[in-house]
Amino acid sequence: MTALRPAAFLDRDGTLIHDAHYLRDPALVRLLPNIAAPLARLRRAGYALVVITNQSGIARGLLTEQDYAAVRDRLDALLAEEGVTLDGSYHCPHEPARSGPCECRKPGTLLHRRAASDLALDVNRSLFIGDRFRDVAPALALGGRGILVPGVDTPSDEISRAEREATVARSLHDAVALVLDAEAS
Ligand SMILES: [Mg+2]
Ligand SMILES: [Zn+2]
Questions:
Q1: CA 12: distance to chain centroid?
Q2: CA 111 to centroid of ligand 1, rounded, Å
Q3: Is 94 annotated as a binding residue?
Q4: Which of 1, 46, 66, 84 is least crowded, fewest Cβ atoms below 10 Å from its Cβ?
Q5: Ligand nearest to the CA of 56
Q6: Which residues are listed under the site Contributes to substrate recognition (predicted)?
Q7: Nearby residues for ligand 2 (ion, Cβ within 5 Å)
Q8: How many angstroms separate the alpha carbon of residue 74 from the centre of ligand 1?
């Protein structure tokens, strides 16, 4: 059997791209600065890159599955221009008040578990990175390490909570350095 790979489970909006809120137009996808190099470094170090994103705009009727797919493809293309390939992208289309509770909306862990099964990932050695506490919370349930990278939309109480229960890094670059520099020493 093949050895399981660790993954970096990455939030999308506010972590990889500017959070345009219920983004449905692929022309509006903008990579955040200084993300390609740390993503490439993770991949060279053997981490699968897996986007896990809550897209409640689908349940709210603000975007369709086709809109989501077009935005995902645009993100893939922009990253490819920077030499970065994602191993997978998973999304939750639900909104609890409209579509009922689900296990896939973060902090739910269904999408991480599905990715682990699809891509032969070792969740215990994986990273859970995002700009909201719900992005890093799955590390508490699944094992692995949660690293909050605060952005413009991160509430201060979530930063405090992540300082206590997970890790906080100033940038994706710093988050990756924190992990890989420690592995190297
Ligand atoms: Mg986000
Ligand atoms: Zn869901």
A1: 5
A2: 16
A3: yes
A4: 1
A5: 2
A6: 105
A7: 92, 94, 102, 104-105
A8: 18
Tokens of 141: 């349930």
Q: Is-catalytic flag, 25? A: no
Q: Is 73 a catalytic residue?
A: no
Tell whether 18 is in a known binding site.
no
Instruction: Confirm whether pTM is higher than 0.90.
Output: yes
Cα 58 to Cα 10, 106, 165: the distances in Å are 20, 15, 31
Q: What angle, rounded to 10 degrees, do the helices at 36-44 and 172-184 form? A: 30
Any idea what the CATH number is for the domain that residue 82 is in?
Answer: 3.40.50.1000
CA–CA gap between residue 52 and residue 44 (Å, rounded):
20
Which tens digits make up the pLDDT trace of 59-97? 999 999 999 999 999 999 999 999 999 999 999 999 999
36-53 confidence digits (pLDDT tens): 999 999 999 999 999 999
Query: Where are the strands (E) in the chain, listed by range?
Result: 7-10, 48-54, 88-92, 127-130, 145-148, 167-168
| Number of structural domains the chain divides into | 1
Is position 104 annotated in a ligand binding site? Answer: yes
pLDDT in tens, 123-161: 999 999 999 999 999 999 999 999 999 999 999 999 999
Q: What range defines the domain where residue 18 resides?
A: 7-125+135-153+165-184
In this structure, which ligand is nearest to the CA of 99?
Answer: 2
